[in-house]
Amino acid sequence: MSNETFNQTTLAKYNGQDGQPAYVAVDGVVYDVTGVAAWTGGKHHGNLAGQELTKVIDEHSPHGRKVLQNLPVVGKYTD
């Protein structure tokens, strides 16, 4: 895992828009979803990159956390 640390403000910069990579945080870990076709443009089923999505993936995602296993980890998320 990268040593980079993100908070709400810094993570928001990685929204997949205007050439920025698309990152999402789940349970304190920041994942790079840039290369995932379903996250094109930083959007996926009404969710936006650059955000902390633990509640969304745990309560609303049909695939749950298993989809995170193959994503690159880019750092950790702190409040």
TrEMBL record:
Gene3D superfamilies the record matches:
Cytochrome b5-like heme/steroid binding domain
Domain Cytochrome b5 heme-binding as annotated: residue spans: 6-78
- Listed InterPro entries: Cyt_B5-like_heme/steroid-bd (IPR001199), Cyt_B5-like_heme/steroid_sf (IPR036400)
Q: What is the name of this protein?
A: Cytochrome b5 heme-binding domain-containing protein
- This chain's source organism reads Lactiplantibacillus mudanjiangensis
